# Entry
Amino acid sequence: MTESVPLTWEEVARVYGRKIYNFAYRLTGNSDDAADLVQEVLLRVRKGLASYQPGSFEGWLWRITRNAFLDDVRRRNRRPTAPLPEEVDRWDLASSPAADIEYARISIGDDVQKALLELPFEFREAVVLCDIVGLSYEEIARAVAVPVGTVRSRIHRGRKLLRESLT
Amino acid sequence: MTHAGELISAYLDGELGRAEIDQLLDHLNGCGRCAAELQEMQRVRSAVRSLPLLELPPGLIPEADAEVIPLHRNKGFLVGAAAAVVALVIAVAAIITPSATPVSLEELNSRYAARASLDPAFGPAKVVVPYLADFLE
# Structure
């Protein structure tokens, strides 16, 4: 399989920024956290590209993304202040016509998003990487550092739990 | 096989080899429970996949929004350098060209320095430095 590897972090930002944002948004349900993650990942990509060995770029990128996400979760958990409720975000979002459209887009999947957030992290992560980001099982295995069989099992168990929440 | 289990999701995701697909389809023919589960998993899978793909908040990655930044920056550098050269030539010409009313070099220098200190846009060095710094970054 030939793979064209983006050479600059600007290209990575252009090609993958939106995917990284959606990955983080679907994992957290929070637009600010998702935006922070995009910036943190791009920072790490910028530092890491110099030493990047051609191989599975997707695996490399999503491993960085996942690690940044987990570091962020750990940092937030140590913080004593309670996070702002998501409603606050939505007031901000709904303040302009363009934001209204974006808010409507978010609302469309509200029940699915809620069900995703109820999943244990490992299952949620596997489902999001598969169905939102569009990675193959092999790429997910590389990003998460588990065998492909584990990915297969997590995705299926995740979907079964989603089915229970959604019915 | 007892029941199809995770083969169902892997099948929907196109992650099964020929042999496993045949094995699964054989099983589904005789197992209503797994056939129903396949349909439900398909429904869940497409519900997640049809979540809207959200736009990046504007300005989150400004460098990526403007595709031609390096080009602009290089051009900016060249234009800046060209302007600097022109300004330098004029300044040098003014200094070395004998004029009708003789002005000392010291006087010219101090006039030039006085204006350069008052007007940040005046003087070739002021034009070159920011672009050059940008370029060498």
